[in-house]
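Handout, section B. The chain below has 444 residues.
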Amino acid sequence: MKWILTGLAALLLAAGCAKESSLPTPSGKGTIRAVNAIANSPNVAFSIEERGIGTLGWKAFSGGVRFDDFEYNFNFDTALAGNLSTTRVATVTQKVDAGRDYTFVLTGNLASPTVTTWEADEPQFGDSATTFLLRFGHLAPTLGDLDVYAAEAGVDPVAGMAIATVSNGAVSDYVELESASLVITVTENNDPGAIVYQTNTLAYNASTAYFLTIFDGDPANAAPYELRLATNSSGANTLTDARVAPTVRIMQTAMNLPSADVYQDEALTDLLAEDLAFGDITGDLEIDAGTTEFTITAADNAGSILLEGSLTTASGVPNNVVIFRDEAEFDATSYVADRRPVSTYAKLRVFNSVSNFEGLDLYLVDADEPIDDAIPRQGLGYPSLGNTLTLAADSYDLYVTEVGEKTVVAGPERLDLALGDSVEVLLLDTADPATAEIVIVPPP
C-alpha cells in the first residue's frame, strides 16, 4: 500500500506542475450532417476525422450533430464492388463556425463523387414561438426548377403563392410558417398544375426546423419521386405521395387451399384477384392506402370463406402477401418488397413456405460447385422470410437442405446475378413430402 500512495502522490505532484493545454478554446458550436445523394449507392460511412457519425444509404440523412467551432476533415467511406474493405471516396475540409449549420451533400458517382455544402444559420426559436421553419432541398437530377407550396388539405396550388423555388442541387432558405397541419405540394416551376409530388396532411410542430428534400424515385416505391423529411437533429423519414396507390402482390403457397378469389372488402363486392391456384403469384395490384380488409373465398363461391385479414399500407409502397398452410388451417403474412437496387452488389431474399420440414438451410455456391464443404448462408423456419443476402455479380447455384443436413431437398437453381439485381425467391411444397421447389419470383 505504501508504494501505491507514493506513486499517486508523485503523479499528483507532476500533474500540478504540468503546463496548461495548448489546445484552442472553442467559442461555440455548429451543427453538421450529411446526405447520400448518389443514386443506387451502397451504404456510405460519414465521419468527422476518424470518428463515425452515421451510415447513409441512398437518400439517407445523418442526424444533426454539434461540434466545437474548429476546422475538421469530414470523410465518406464505402465498400466498392468486389472489395471486402472500405475505401475513402471523399473528404471535405470545413471550418465550423459557431451558430452555423452545415449539410454535406454527396452527389455524382462513387468513382468520382462531389461534396456540396449547404450552409445556414442554426434555427432559433423564442420560448413562446408558434411557428416552425421549413427549407427545401432539390436532389432529383431528372427534374428542373421546382416550386414548393404549403397549404391546408384541399387547397390547390396557386401561381405566386409558392413558399420556395429551388434548382437541382440547391437548397432554399428557411421559410417561417405558423404551426399547423399542412399538405406540401411540389410542382414544376411557374406551373402550379404540373404537380410532381403531394404529401398527405402532416402536422408541423412549433419551434421545430424541418428539412424537406426531393430525390428521383426507384423500384422501391411506385411514386416517380421520393420526398424525405428530417428535422434539425434527426435523420430523414420518407413521406408518401398521396396521389400514388400502394400495391399488393399475392403469393398463393398453401398446397391444399382450393382455387381462391380475393376481395378487398368485407362485403365481397370488390374483387381484387380471382382463381388463384397453388403456386400462383399476381402482379402488383393497386389498393387504397390505409387499412384494407381482405376476404379470401373459394373461386366463384363467395359464400365459402377460406380466410380473412387486414393489411395497413402507405401510399406507393409495394407489399407482398403470402398465403400459407398453418397445420390444418390457412393463414397469411405480409412484408414490404425489397426492390431498391444497389450499384455494388446484388440482393437475394427468400421466403420459406415449405410445411413438410421444421426448417431449411440455404446454400449458395459458385456455379457447378458442390455443397460438400460449404456452410449454409441462411437457415429458415416455417413460415419465415429470410434476411436480405448481398452477393457479388456472378453465377451461383442455390441449394436447399433440411436444417442441419446435407441432403438436398431442392436445387440446384442457377442464379446469374448482376450488380443492382434484387431477386425474390419462394420455397414451395411439392407432392413429394421429401422435396421442395425453388421458385424465382418474376418481376411484377
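Note. DSSP finds one helix and 35 strands in the chain. Compare this with the example in section A.
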